[in-house]
Amino acid sequence: MYVDKTRYIYELASVSTPYFISRPRRFGKSLTVSTFYTEINTTDERQVEYARNHRLTPDRITGTWMRESLLTTYEIEQAPPVSFLIQAGYLTFKEWDSELGYLVDYPNKEVRDSISHLVIMGTYGIDEWVQDELKNNIIAGLREGDFEKIFGQMKRTLAAIPYNLYEQRESYYHSVILTLLRATGIDAAAEEITNLGRSDIVIRYRDHVYVLELKRGRA
Questions:
Q1: Which of 8, 38, 77, 109 is buried most deeply by CB count within 10 Å?
Q2: 3-class secondary structure for the chain?
Q3: Residue 25 pLDDT more than 90?
Q4: 1 pLDDT band (50/70/90 cuts)?
């Protein structure tokens, strides 16, 4: 059972009277307080710093099962990535399993795109003005069907990532490109399985579907 505590959090934020909440047991008291603490104390700059320090990437966020004990972390700087994002309001619970715990995921596309923006700035060190250029040219390329423009912009954006943040793994480039696409607001999905096989990245834009197969060549 899940209880929406939004109204009570609003009441806590609206008055100065101290509260002592001791019951009932296992009712999400620690998680509620941690979420409240995070919303008040975690600025955009602090979130970017956290993403940078923890090398936050999409594959460390979604499709993750987490134990209930991880939800009680109070010191936000020491929280594991999934716990941090739950407390910051970026993730929600999709399923519960008595053995595995909670399955977490994005609540909606808007939040997913917002996390992508956070990852791009923190983990990959790409400035906002580069992201604006990326968004404008990617969307223009999709509208015009000009993939040379899209690939050219991708190359310029990848070149803006500091060399010390690069990893020589094909999966790294999958993650970066998917995150860049999502940060523009485009509907992009990874590892989609069909009767013909598995697609690295699938882009859905208006009435078109584009399938990308990514390979890293030898330098």
A1: 38
A2: CCCCCHHHHHHHHHCCCCCCCCCCCCCCHHHHHHHHHHHHHCCHHHHHHHHHHHCCCHHHCCCEEECHHHHHCCCHHHCCHHHHHHHCCCCEEEEEECCCEEEEECCCHHHHHHHHHHHHHHCCCCCHHHHHHHHHHHHHHHHHCCHHHHHHHHHHHHHCCCHHHCCCCHHHHHHHHHHHHHHCCCEEEEEEEECCEEEEEEEEECCEEEEECCCCCCC
A3: no
A4: low
